[in-house]
Amino acid sequence: MISKPIVVGHDGSESAARATGWAAREATRRGTDLVVVRACPPPQADVPHLVPLPKSFDQALVAQCRAELKAAGEAVTGVEVTTVFTRLTPVRTLVEQSATAQLLVLGSRGTGGVTGMVVGSTAMALAAHGRCPVAVVRSGTPTDGPVVLGVHESTSEEAIEFAFDAARSRDVPLLAVHTWRNRVVVIGTDTDAMVAAGRELLGRRLNGWQDKYPQVAVQRLLVNDRPGHALVEQSKHARLLVVGSRGRNTLTGALLGSTCHALVHHAECPVVIARNFG
């Protein structure tokens, strides 16, 4: 069976170059190919211009995008690389690519303008509509530290599996983090009871995975904090951070969305969002 490739979106920025390097190393680690994608949509027809843009502008835009894509592909070593050029929008392009990919990778900052990706909104759109996990590579790409997994009641099995597999392939521990400040706390709440409930949740959600990945050392951490803030703090000492949701209800989506937004913009290590794809 042919392994699905890793797909990285490239927009010519330094951030995209870092993401491509990270994606290439991940492809090598997984023994699969890398696909570098450059979306170069035409200037939007609904954007008002005092003077219509000349045809030469679009031709120059295409030439620039193709040249940057070629350079990006040639810069990758140690893994089989395919490049894809398209005139579709970045989100549509990467959603389509996700159907045959095992991982989508983005940089944390785009170039802006008509060719750049607004990474925060792009990552959230791909997390919501893509068919595989999405990795956002921040400016830092640490080479040590654990894989951190954010765990809550609706954490997807896909996120848990991704985190365990990432820890195994990197030969590092897995740190499972559960926060509970987002729960409704009333006067007289027994903090010890909430901690006990958190320990029970971690045990239940990780049940079976430690048997499947016996070589992965698992550490557990309970934090009385907001999920986004707690995980950003943990990212300062992590090699990779993984979150994801199996829920589709409004509350779950809002909580995951606010957490992911914080991580995409503030985490100090690469972030993977892996929701349920069923």
TrEMBL record:
**Cross-referenced InterPro entries:** Rossmann-like_a/b/a_fold (IPR014729), Universal_stress_UspA (IPR006015), UspA (IPR006016)
**UspA domain sequence ranges:** 4-138, 147-275
Q: Which residues form the signal peptide?
A: none
* Superkingdom, natural source: Bacteria
Q: Which family does it belong to?
A: Belongs to the universal stress protein A family.
Query: Could you identify this protein by its name?
Result: UspA domain-containing protein
Source species of the chain? Kutzneria albida DSM 43870
Lineage of this protein's species?
Bacteria, Bacillati, Actinomycetota, Actinomycetes, Pseudonocardiales
